Amino acid sequence: MSLPRAAGRLLARSWQQGLRFYSAAAPSPSARLNLPIDYKTTPLLHHTPSSLANSLELPKNASTKQINLYQAINAALRTAMSASDKVILFGEDVAFGGVFRCSMDLQMEFGSERVFNTPLTEQGIVGFAIGAAAQGLKPVAEIQFADYVFPAFDQIVNEAAKFRYREGTTGANVGGLVIRMPCGGVGHGALYHSQSPEALFAHVPGVRVVIPRSPSQAKGLLLSAILECNDPVIFMEPKILYRAAVEHVPIESYTLPLSKAEVIKPGTDLTIISYGQPLYLCSAAIAAAENARKGLKVELIDLRTIYPWDRQTVLESVRKTGRAIIVHESMINYGVGAEVAATIQEGAFLRLEAPIKRVAGWSTHTGLAYEQFILPDVARIYDAIIQTLDY
Amino acid sequence: MASSLVGRWVARIPRRPHAVLGAVRWNSSISQRPGSDHVRFPGAVNSKFTSEMTFSRPSTMTAMPTYRVMDSDGVIVDTSRGPPDVPDEEVITWYKNMLTVNIMDVIMFEAQRQGRISFYMVSAGEEGIAVGSASALAPEDVIFLQYREAGVFQQRGFTLKQFMSQLFANRNDSGLGRNMPVHYGSSKLGIYTISSPLATQIPQATGAAYALKLQALQNPNNPPRVVACYFGEGAASEGDFHAALNIAATRSCPVIFICRNNGYAISTPTLEQYRGDGIASRGVGYGIDTIRVDGNDIFAVREATKEARRMALENGGRPILIEAMSYRVSHHSTSDDSFAYRARVEVEDWKRRDNPIIRLRKWLENKGLWNDELEQQTRNELRAAILKEFNAAEREKKPPLRSLFTDVYENLTEEAEAQRQELKRHLEKYPDEYNLNDYEDGIKGL
C-alpha cells in the first residue's frame, strides 16, 4: 500500500497548484451542461459577508474572512485545540502541516505533544485514538485518504462503534473521538484516491458520519464533532473542495448541529437530496432545468450528516414536492441513496408522483481514464430531473 | 519506510515566506560523511559498515532466557537473594485469588455443560500471570485485557456477584447483558470491558497510555500511571499488535504489554503461529525493553511487572514487553475439545508437573504457612461462596428490554426510538411468543 500512497502525496501537491485539466477530465468543447463548476459564482458559497449574514444557522454580525475548505478545517482545528487541551491531533504526516495543509502551523502553535506524526498504520492510528478517547481525551485522528481507512475498519466497526454499548453502566465511552479523512473524486485519483466509503459506515450503529459541502459548513460541523458530540464521528472532507471552495467564514467559534439536514434552496416541484461536492453539480443542474422549464422550482437538500440522518426534513420536503432524486458519488448499489429512497417510499408513499431516482457512481471502480463517465455530473442530474418531472 | 521518506522529501519544499529552497535544515536531517565507518542513512544511524557478507540468522541466536525466582518445587532458586518483598499475608491472598478463579472455572465450565450459561473460558494454568502481574500494578493504573485474565479482576477486587452477574447476563451486569460470558469490565477497577476481537485492545492501550502521559504533563499533580495490556501469543500475530508496539515505542507511551504465551491459539500450536524466538524477540525489534518470565512463577511475574512499571514511568515514559510463558492446561473454551488436536497425556503431564497454584502452595507449605487442612477448609469456603452467588445470579431477571436500544449513541436517535416503538407494538400483539417475564419489568421495561 505504501507505494501508491506515496504517489498520492505527490498528487496531493499537484492538486494544490490549482485547477488542472488532465486529458481524462477535459470538458467537451460543445458541452452546455457539463461545464467546470465555477466556484466563484455558485450560489452555494457565501461570496459576500451579507449573504453569510442571511444564513439562519451561522453567527450574526460576525467578522468574516474568505478562506477555502482546507483553511476552514485548519481554523476549526485551531479553535478546538485552543478551546480544550484535551484535543490532540495525529496521523500520517500531520506534523508538517499535512499533505493537504489542513494541520498547517498547528504543531508550532500547540506543541509536538498535541500535534504529531504516527507510524504509517491506519489500524494503529484508530486503535490509538480509541484508547486516548476512552481515557477522556478528544483525539482527532487523520486518515490520509478515505481509500486507506479499510485497515482500520475493524477498529471502527467492532471497537469505536460498540464501545459505549458493551461498557453499559460502567459509563466508559469513546465519545471524544473524531476521525477525519479526505474523500471523493478529484478528476485523476483513480482507484485509491477517489473513494467515498460513507455508506459502509452508515451501516454501523454507533458512529456518526458527517460530510460538509463548504468552508463555513466544514468549520461549524467539525467544531461540533470535536467539542460537542459525545459519539465517535467520522468526518469526511471532499478533497476536491480543499482549494476550490472559497467563501466568507465567521472568524469566531461556532457550531452547526449534527444529524440535521439543511434546505439550501426551497422548491415545490421536486426534491434533490445530496451531500458534499455533488451539491454543486445539483445546483448547476437545477439552474439549467429551471431555465429550460419556466416556473419550475426544485428544492435542494444537503444531508450534511449521513448517519444518523435527518429523516424528517427529507420526508417533509418530499411530501410537499411528490418527487425525489438522490445524488452521490459513491456506488449506487447499497449506497446512501438506497436508504434514503426506502425511507421516502415508506414515509411519503401516497404523495409520490414518480419513482425515486438515484444518480450515483456506477457499480465499478474509479478507473483513471473513466472518472467523468463514472461519477454523477450535471448532465446526468439534469436528465434525472427531466425524467422525473415527465414521468 | 519508502512512503515516509517521500513525505520527508515533500516536507523540504518551502511553504513559509521565510523559508528558501535548500536553506532550511530540519533537525532530523542526516547526511553521509566521507570516510565514516558508520552508516549515516537516516533509517539506521548506528550501523557499522562491513565488507563481510553475513545474513543475520535467527537459528544461530540464543533464545531469550526465562526469568524465574522459584522452581517447580516452590524453592527460591537463587539462595543469595532475599525473600520476596511482600508480606506473607499478601502472598496468601494471591494464593486464595488464584484458587478462587480455579474453583470458579471448574463450576462454571460444568454449568455451561449443563446449559445454564451459554459459554465459558477457563484460566487454568495462567492464574499466576494474571494475579502476579495485577499485584504489581497501582490501583489507579489502567488495564486492557483479552479474556483469559479473570485473575486480574479477582486480584483488583471484582466481586463474585459481579462475576456471576456478567456470566448470567442478569440485571446486575454492568454490561447490561449485552456481551458474551467472560467479557467482564469495571470502570471502578480501571479495567475496560473485554471485547472478542483479538488484539484490538493493544493499540487502544497504547493510546490510553499516551493520554495518561499527556494528562500527567498537563497536570503534574496527577499521579504517574501506566497502562497494562494483556494478550495471548496468538493475538500477537494480528496487525494490531505490530501497530501498537510500534506507536508505543515512537510516542514513548507508558504501557506494559503482557503476553501470555500458553503454547496454543485454539488448536494452533506456536510452531504454526511464528518461527522467531517467541513474542519477546519482537519487542527488541521495536526498540522496546523486553523480558521473558516463567508464568507459572508468581514471584517472577510480580517482580518483572513491578520493575516494568518503574521503567515505564522513567524519563517521561516508554513501553515495556513481558512475555510470560505458560501452558494452556484447559480447553480453549467450552466450545472446544482440545483432545482433537493434542494428546490427553500431554495435558495431564502439564497438570501434574507444574502449575502456578501448586507451585505457590509448595512455597507456602515450605514456609509453614499452609497445609492440607487449610487447603480443604479454604476450598470449601470458596466453593460455598461461589455457589451462593451462582444461585442468586441465576435467579435474577435479565436487564430491562430497553437496554437493547440504549447506549448505541449517547442519546437514543429518532430512528432507534421509532424501532423501540415498533418492537413494543409487536410484543404487545404477540406477547405469548416471547418470555417477557424473564426481563426486568417485562414489557414495561422496554
TrEMBL record, chain A:
It holds the Pfam family Transketolase_C. GO terms for molecular function: branched-chain 2-oxo acid dehydrogenase activity. Keywords: Oxidoreductase, Pyruvate. GO terms for biological process: branched-chain amino acid catabolic process; generation of precursor metabolites and energy; response to nutrient. Gene3D superfamilies: 3.40.50.920, 3.40.50.970. SUPFAM superfamilies: Thiamin diphosphate-binding fold (THDP-binding), TK C-terminal domain-like. SMART domains: Transket_pyr. Residues 67-244 form the Transketolase-like pyrimidine-binding domain. It catalyses: N(6)-[(R)-lipoyl]-L-lysyl-[protein] + 3-methyl-2-oxobutanoate + H(+) = N(6)-[(R)-S(8)-2-methylpropanoyldihydrolipoyl]-L-lysyl-[protein] + CO2. It comes from the Eukaryota. Its cofactor is thiamine diphosphate. InterPro entries: THDP-binding (IPR029061), Transketo_C/PFOR_II (IPR009014), Transketolase-like_Pyr-bd (IPR005475), Transketolase_C (IPR033248). Its EC number is 1.2.4.4. This is 3-methyl-2-oxobutanoate dehydrogenase (2-methylpropanoyl-transferring). It comes from Rasamsonia emersonii (strain ATCC 16479 / CBS 393.64 / IMI 116815).
TrEMBL record, chain B:
It is an enzyme of class 1 (oxidoreductase). Residues 406-433 form a coiled coil. InterPro entries: Alpha-ketoacid_DH_E1_comp, DH_E1, THDP-binding. It comes from Rasamsonia emersonii (strain ATCC 16479 / CBS 393.64 / IMI 116815). This is 2-oxoisovalerate dehydrogenase subunit alpha. SUPFAM superfamilies: Thiamin diphosphate-binding fold (THDP-binding) (SSF52518). GO terms for biological process: branched-chain amino acid catabolic process. Belongs to the BCKDHA family.
